[in-house]
Every structure is written in C-alpha cells, then in structure tokens.
C-alpha cells in the first residue's frame, strides 16, 4: 500500500510516509478515523476524538492495564526480556506512565521545577547558549542546524537544569534514541530488544548520577528531587530514577524536532518566513502554529480501562489506543480548509494538541516554547538570508518525527 491508497488503513510503513505522513492522515481521517490497526492497538485520527480520549480521566497510561489483542503484545515481550536478562524491574514509574494516585503525588513534586517563574528565569541562559551555538556557523558560513542548534540547545538546557555531571553525550544519545523507539505505533522485535537493553544501561547510568549528586548537591532539579526522596514516603528511589530519566529524555528528544523542523518548514514557506523576519513580535504566535503544523510528538496513547465508544465503534476494555496528535492538528473540521497550510498568525493555532491534553499535559511546554522562541527567533535575525544547502534527512521515527540533519548555508 502506498500513501495514495484510498482504503484508509493506517500504515506507517507505506512508502513516502516518512517524508509526508500528512497526506496519509488526510485519507485515514476521512475514511476510517477510528480503527484497529493491523498490529492490534486502536488509533484515533480526528481532533474531537483525540481531544476527548486525552481528557477522559477514567483511562489509564499504565501498560500493565492492557490486554493486547493482536501481534503487538509489548507487555509479554517486556516480561520475556526481564526473564532472559534476569532483571527484576517493574514497568516505568515515570509520571508519563503512571495513573492516580501516584501520578498526582509525583506530578506535584516534579512541577515545582516548571513554574512560569522558574522557566522565565532561564531566558538569559538560553539566549547565551543559542548565541554560542550559532557562533561557529557564523564564522564558517555553514552548519548543520539540527546538530549544532536544535539538538544541542535542549540537551544542554535540560542537563543544566537537572545538574547532570559532564558525561558521555554520545552514549546517552544512543540509549535515548533506542528507548524512544518504543513510543512508535509499530516496533520490530529487534528494536524492542535494543530499547530494553538501552533502558537498563540508562537506569544504571542515572543511578550512578544520583549517587554522584548526593555527594555533590547543588541548586538544581536533581538535588531537589533527591531531597524529596530523602523524605521517604514522597518519592521512592526507583520513582526518583524514573522521573529523572523521563525529564532528561523528554527534555531533549522532542524540542529538537520543534526547532529543527520549525526552521525547515519556514524555509519551505518563504512568505511566512519573510513575515516573521519583518515582524519578530509574531514569534510567540508563530511557535504555536509551528507546534500545530509539525507535531514534534505525533502520537500519545491511553489504555481503555472500560469499553469506550468512538463514532459507533466499541473499543474493548484493555485495548491500547493511539491518539494521533499530528492528524488532529491538521483536521479541517477543527482548523478549517487551511488546516494543511502554515499560517503563522492563525487565530486558533494554540488549540493544537501537540502537548497532549488533560492530566498528562506536557509539563515542559513553557520550557519548550521558550527554547524554540529564542532559538528560531535568533537564527532568523542573525541569518536572514540562510538557505538549505544539500539534502535534509528525516530521522525515520513514526512518533518523535523530525530531521536528523539540516545542512544550511547561513551567509
Ligand atoms: C516541543 C517539545 C515537546 C513536545 C511536543 C512535548 C509533548 C508532550 C506530550 C504529547 C506529552 C503527553 C501528553 C498526554 O499524553 O496528554 C508530554 C508529556 C510530558 N512532557 Fe513533554 N513535550 C515537549 C517538551 C518537553 C520538555 C522540554 C520537557 C521537560 C524538560 C517535557 C516533559 C514532559 C513530561 C514530564 C511529561 C509527562 C507529563 C505527565 O504525564 O503528567 N516535555 N509531552
């Protein structure tokens, strides 16, 4: 099947999907907006359904509540690997994968570090990191925008916020890349195994970092979370490790796509780029429209703890349900006939679901927007005549979709 197939069966392995999943979503949305995918989990593609699913407080995010129907039994694969590697681990106890009452308790602890005041206080530091990242490009006249800016900035910001020790960036990047594959709607057995092994390495690494931080406390997020752990009944040591891992990975594997693909999409829409260059006061609105247009996280998910009905189809209790945020953001029933166009001053752009919705709404949304505002705004003002030079490459991910490289000539 290719992306022009009119059957409406969701198939992220279809030729052309990596470069342009949106034409595929358009067909799926109009012919089968609620469907059980070929591998088992269900998926929703319209704005109204996605929004309702994300906000349903009775649904779960804990994989242990799923009773898979189809080939994609991730819980069984996980348990097989635990036995094979003789590891005794429960699933991930990060807030992204935890239901109330644990979710409520943990989110309250972690959110202290993400208040608007804390985030705004990072503005000057983020500006310096952006300036430093762009200096070598300015000197040479060329650069890879993903490597040098879009990846480097969020990675450095979350590492500094947490107070991570200087470490082996390449190894961390590799483990993190393998781990986020599990967020894709389809994953091969080999990828699942690699993600499992990488997660064990990441666990061991974060445990060492926590030990190091106990001996080297500072004015940082990790020290704050360790203090909460010392307070016993508020945060267990495994919960501490899993929150740190989530923040570290969510902190950089998502914003990279907003900044990298954001700069790319502005290049592909020169009139919009010119508007923004001429009126930088548009930047904050522009970031919301870029978030809508790009959806750096293309899918979120919930597990049905009861039978749920969407458009007359009953999704049975125990089903794993993907919410296609990227398709919801392009739904003409919500965003009108121009939904597939980038319009930086779109009045309702901020209604996008790129940060999810409901109780799991992205905790780092203000941080991500601030990073993107400064990175994209500064790039455009410093390099008004930048052009793409050579071939950009996509990272090939279904969920955390973005560019792996974006070579540009900046002057
Ligand atoms: C453009 C960048 C980002 C995007 C598109 C994004 C998107 C998302 C999405 C879709 C969710 C799940 C929401 C749901 O299922 O309802 C989420 C959750 C989360 N995000 Fe982000 N995120 C971004 C950046 C960040 C950053 C920079 C951080 C932290 C430094 C962060 C931390 C988190 C955390 C902790 C959660 C879990 C919240 C919970 O389950 O209660 N994110 N994010």
Shape, per Cα inertia axes: globular
Mean pLDDT: 92
Strand order of the largest sheet: 1-2-7-4
Name the CATH homologous superfamily: Cytochrome P450
Small molecules in complex = protoporphyrin IX containing FE
- At the third CATH level, what is the topology name? Cytochrome p450
Relative helix content: 40-55%
Number of strands: 11
Q: What top-tier CATH class fits best?
A: Mainly Alpha
Tell me what the CATH architecture is.
Orthogonal Bundle
Low-pLDDT residue intervals, each spanning 5 or more residues: none
Residue share in β-strands = 5-15%
User: Biggest sheet, open or closed, and with what strands and sense?
Assistant: 4 strands, mixed
Number of helices: 17
Description of the structure:
The protein has 411 residues and is α+β, with helices and mostly antiparallel strands. It has a single domain (33-409), classed as Cytochrome p450. The protein contains 17 helices and eleven strands. The chain has helices at residues 21-31, 47-54, 74-84, 102-111, 116-120, 123-140, 145-162, 169-180, 189-215, 221-230, 237-253, 255-268, 270-278, 283-294, 325-328, 332-335, 365-382; strands at residues 34-36, 42-44, 142-144, 299-303, 308-310, 313-315, 320-324, 387-388, 393-394, 403-405, 407-409. The strands form four sheets. A four-stranded mixed β-sheet has the order 1-2-7-4. It has a three-stranded antiparallel β-sheet with strand order 3-11-8. A hairpin with a 5-residue loop joins strand 1 (34-36) and strand 2 (42-44). The longest helix is centred in the middle third of the chain and has 27 residues, at 189-215. Residues 54, 95-96, 107, 158, 246-247, 250-251, 254-255, 258, 296-297, 300, 354-358, 360-364, 367-368 line the site of protoporphyrin IX containing FE (HEM).
